[in-house]
Specification:
disordered N terminus, 19 helices, single chain, mainly alpha, disordered C terminus
Length: about 500
């Protein structure tokens, strides 16, 4: 038996000993996975188990794919206007593959940590393993602190971006309220995610979320093609360094959505089957992002430089309204995806992580929503904030730290000999993995964090200078007032 199989058997055997029949028990003690697994063996399903208790490979695939696209789908045409069509396509493929590689590294480190802990007799019943705990167990407290700081900050701003996106999107259906007011409203709506116990319970949401983004992506593609090119369309990008690297870091952010990889793996009945899931999810995401971004850029060209939300350039139709509504629902789901790990961290800090009461947990979680709400009101810059978060946070959380952690975990001969996971078949050499990891670290540090950080922060500061903090309605068209009347006339089409 190979070491990887031994690790999986150790995990499954320990779970069986805990009465889980080879499955994970979700946080809050409401996973019910042992019952769900037994129902599968008996050929029986309840509606609750079908919709609520997810832990299969397909559940993980839907979670990864659904979490990748989200609101970034609407900002990628903006990135293409900054990068040009060639760079836009190539960087999507490049960062998609790089992101899949580092997600694989995270999965390997999770299995290694879990296997070591199981051998020590540690039980994870009612405890969700998180990335900072993996780093702590494999590399020590300093790595734990770094992982906790970067991961939590990234997830915090990830949820902020979802609120900003909700307000930006709904404005294109109902502009009677400004975007800041919509942020207040959706902040209250998204706070209800405190009642979703763990990633086990996102089965139906992940499935629906991916369907919603699939519709939106193909709506953008077809609508742009039907609309045709605007009069005098120009495609000047790339022509300046700041926009170029700002767009590049937005794509870095697009395929860096695996800050929740460990939590998704832990929700799986057999975590070792995660290996290629992120890559397969990325390949599907390519079918959504490449056609929609290219079609929008072809149709509108440089107009996208001042319209970071793709919806703003398309005429209002029932099809567009449907896409907006579906994206709003999906952004609510993605808010929950990004915020759930923060809920776990806060529960652990408060000593409430293993409490069985869902309502008590929800009450403990509520304070996490407040800073998210506040930051979304301060920095409502749809589009530019994605690039800033990508350069300053995603670069470390998703790319640099996993690659460095893998190199350091297996730096000794004994660690490589006893590794729970051996190098993949397409790269069977430990030296080859080291070289590839070193390349990832160097590239992202220089291009992503260095040049991308400089460009995205420059652009972000420009937005603050132009619109100010607490902007009431970022990139909203001016509403003309009828002469002699204090009431505004109907808003013009958003172009």
């Amino acid at each position: 038996m190979v070491p990887g199989e031994q690790a999986e058997d150790a995990i499954v055997q320990a779970d069986v000993a805990n009465g889980k029949d080879g499955e994970e028990v979700s946080a809050m003690g409401v996973g019910g996975d042992a019952d769900a697994e037994q129902q599968q063996h008996d050929g029986k399903f309840t509606m609750k188990s079908l919709l609520w208790h997810g832990g299969s490979v397909w559940d993980a695939w839907f979670s990864c794919a659904s979490n990748q696209v989200a609101q970034v789908l609407l900002t990628l045409p903006y990135s293409f206007s900054q990068l040009g069509i060639v760079s836009g396509v190539l960087l999507q493929i490049f960062y998609g593959l790089m992101g899949s590689w580092t997600a694989y590294l995270i999965s390997v480190l999770y299995v290694e940590y879990r296997a070591r802990k199981e051998k020590e007799g540690v039980s994870f019943k009612n405890h969700v393993i998180q990335w900072f705990e993996v780093l702590d167990g494999l590399l020590g407290p300093y790595w734990k602190a770094a992982g906790l700081a970067f991961n939590c900050t990234f997830l915090l701003f990830g949820t902020v971006i979802q609120l900003i996106a909700c307000a930006s999107n709904i404005y294109y259906i109902n502009d009677r309220l400004d975007k800041r007011t919509w942020t207040y409203i959706f902040g209250a709506c998204c706070a209800t995610t405190v009642f979703i116990p763990s990633f086990h319970n996102y089965r139906v949401w992940s499935f629906l979320g991916l369907g919603m983004t699939t519709y939106t992506a193909w709506y953008l593609t077809i609508a742009a093609a039907v609309h045709g090119q605007v009069d005098g369309v120009t495609h000047s990008g790339p022509n300046k360094l700041v926009p170029y690297f700002t767009g590049a870091t937005n794509i870095l952010y697009t395929f860096g959505g695996h800050a929740i990889t460990v939590e998704i793996m832990h929700a799986m009945w057999k975590p070792r089957k995660f290996k290629c899931i992120y890559l397969l999810a990325t390949l599907y995401v390519f079918t959504l992002t490449l056609p929609s971004a290219a079609a929008m850029y072809w149709a509108f060209g440089d107009q996208l430089l001042t319209h970071s939300n793709a919806f703003s350039l398309l005429p209002r139709t029932p099809w567009r309204d449907a896409a907006v509504v579906l994206m709003l629902i999906h952004q609510f789901i993605t808010f929950g995806f990004a915020c759930t790990p923060l809920y776990f961290v806060w529960e652990k800090a408060m000593g409430m992580h293993e409490t069985s009461s869902v309502f008590l947990r929800a009450l403990v979680r509520l304070p996490i929503v407040v800073p998210v709400w506040f930051l979304a009101i301060i920095f409502p810059f749809f589009g530019p904030i994605n690039s800033a978060v990508g350069a300053l946070l995603v670069s470390f959380t998703v790319y640099i730290i996993p690659a460095l952690a893998h190199m350091l975990t297996y730096r000794s001969a004994s660690a490589r000999l006893n590794a729970a996971e051996k190098p993949p078949s397409f790269l069977p050499s430990w030296s080859g993995m080291f070289v590839l990891n070193a390349f990832v670290v160097a590239w992202v540090l220089v291009v992503g964090f260095g040049l991308g950080g400089w460009a995205s922060v420059t652009n972000f500061v420009k937005q603050i200078d132009t619109f100010g903090l607490f902007a009431k309605c970022y990139q909203c068209p001016t509403k003309p007032h009828a002469a002699g009347s204090p009431l505004p006339a109907p808003a013009p089409p958003h172009r």
